[in-house]
């Protein structure tokens, strides 16, 4: 029997999933979300962002969150940093950890940073107030400093398919930006359909262009589900050799700088869709070597409830409906047995 192809999931719910929320989310809720995800088998969780709370209020408190989270072995807890100031914030937390007794027995608050830019100047100006070239010049020393401290560095390229300000993106620019991030030392570059407008054929064309300069094993896919094509785009990326997919529990997400974009592809939907396929999702011992679909679905409903709404994951909604129906049928059977 042919062995299955391993697929990695980067769970971005605690960061990308929550950054666009309107209300204030308590630190306790964020910590609990991260801990639940780790116990479901997630081995790479993006837990927060060292950005200015003035611009992204929901990312306030990241230092406290990563310090308070009960961390499990063999799990990467990544944080997004936009600049040197953001990295300094993380290093301050790590310095406190390194000088404590916890450093001998507890995994560090974080061992990975994510840096980000985009494939159009219009988007980088809206998001970072710089051009692409300027953003890359500012990121290079941040990446170098992080690598020198022993941190893993992952890169994001936003609007890899379409830009909310300029429309269709030139895939050659996606390739050029990805190559620059690779040369900075990023172990992986995540290509984002930030608007969620991409189709499988567009994803295929974009990937084939980027692969001219960047090995496919160093690429990841990050798909929003605005037009309902995210799962199809995931399968297209996998067929073209990508082996890491970003997703968000409960389909949480959106982007404050991408008007109209809805949530990330739901982790539950990917886990369900990959069942019985030639792919297998990798995970920790807490998910028995994978990521537990039932646990993730429960978490999706739990965090959606904390936010005052229902889960938008299609698989999650179907799972919930089946669970309610099964409970009702069991009660009906008990009633009939008493008659």
Task: Describe this protein's structure.
The chain is α/β, with parallel strands linked by helices. The chain has twelve helices and eleven strands. It has helices at residues 13-17, 27-39, 62-68, 84-98, 121-128, 132-148, 171-184, 200-210, 230-239, 267-273, 293-306, 314-338, and strands spanning 5-11, 44-49, 76-80, 112-118, 152-158, 162-163, 167-168, 188-193, 219-223, 244-247, 279-281. The strands form two sheets. A nine-stranded parallel β-sheet has the order 2-3-4-5-8-9-10-1-11. It has a two-stranded antiparallel sheet with strand order 6-7. Strand 6 (162-163) and strand 7 (167-168) form a beta hairpin. Helix 6 packs parallel to helix 7. The mean pLDDT is 93.
Keywords for this structure?
339 residues, alpha/beta, nine-stranded parallel β-sheet, two-stranded antiparallel ribbon, 11 strands, 43% helix, globular, metal ion binding, EC 4.1.3.4, hydroxymethylglutaryl-CoA lyase, HMGL, Aldolase_TIM
TL;DR of this structure?
With 339 residues, this protein is of the alpha/beta class.
Largest sheet, strands/sense/barrel: 9 strands, parallel
- What portion of the residues fall into strands of 2 or more residues? 15-25%
Helix content: 40-55%
Q: Which ranges are low-confidence, i.e. pLDDT below 50, for 5 or more consecutive residues?
A: none
Strand tally: 11
How big is the Rg? 20 Å
What is the global morphology? globular
Based on secondary structure, the structural category is alpha/beta
Query: What is the H-and-E element order?
Result: EHHEHEHEHHEEEHEHEHEHEHH
Ends: how far apart? 51 Å
| Strands in their spatial order, largest beta sheet | 2-3-4-5-8-9-10-1-11
User: What is the count of DSSP helices, taking H or I runs of 4+ residues?
Assistant: 12
* Overall pLDDT: 93
